[in-house]
């Protein structure tokens, strides 16, 4: 007895009796490869000539050791960073002819505001560029500090400093990202290279509008000891009705110099920046001389955390505004449903447009919430790692910043949940409006059909009357035309015939 074979085996041997016609067709049909898969030179029929020769990575790679940061190259990752840095640094349109930057400077003696022009910027950076102490000398200071009887009331590094640079951006065409920083090209180069700023921050500093992920960078010496860390990011713009340059924030904490540096590029009159300056002024005026260094200098990520908090607070205004707009449209739909408003097609059409605006606004707010969550999470992670490496850090003091940023993250996650819920409500309401319009169209179609039926009845009556009077009209026309050559007798016979045919006997 022969062993039964699987239908697929039968198909491979040519026996197609077990297959349907469709399956047999698939077996017999030869599947040809796409021409592009063979030649690898296919061009889309919609392509333009410029698409054939486009260079997506059009950079100048002719760089040497005199280009920052290639003079002290420590990682292969820094090479392309340097390429992008110089791509935008060389464009003079990105920079102003004069420097107008505000700087908030804090040290162990107190704090002050400075308005920097090109000369003042040079002088400030020259002071910062003083060679910092070595690791060994700093470790010796730490050892003596740890064994001091006054521990922990004294601070080991009286030379701690913090610099906060506020660099406005003004919109102008012909620049890399549609904005120009109020700083000369020379000052910008000097600022970034003197403070060893991550070269990629150059893109954000001149107004790059895309919310790319936050970036961190950690520097260590040959023995693996942490020298510095930095973090830069962009905060979301919650006002959907106006644009302007984004708020970009860079922080670098140099452990050797004990220097915290912030570079904040922003549009002019940015509300978060105005509020931040007010907060710094209040702290500067009310804090005692003894506590002032601790308030400003103990946690390098304080300002980063405050800006995230301000971004969240600013979102509340726009979220509330969105809710009012949403409920206004929802109430209109309910009024139509309850019969309080006449379901006019124009009104329903306008309502559909408003619901679409609501949908796009909800999408934008969801994206902003995602950006805020990613940014705040990066700040919290970098803050946690840095605090563990700081020699003078206090876990409980630095916990305040961690708690604040964790609150922002949780609140933004909750806000995102609400917006997803609003979007679902919008989808349900949009479906309801569509059904109302469809029902109205169906009612209009029924009314049109009824009118057409009435018109059809009238046309039938007119046709019947036409059939009654048409023969007589035809006869009169024929007789009046003299078709019978004027023969009266024959004409009378014809008239008698039609009279007998159409006029009933009395």
From TrEMBL:
The chain crosses the membrane at residues 461-484. Keywords: Membrane, Transmembrane, Transmembrane helix. This is Uncharacterized protein. It comes from Penicillium freii.
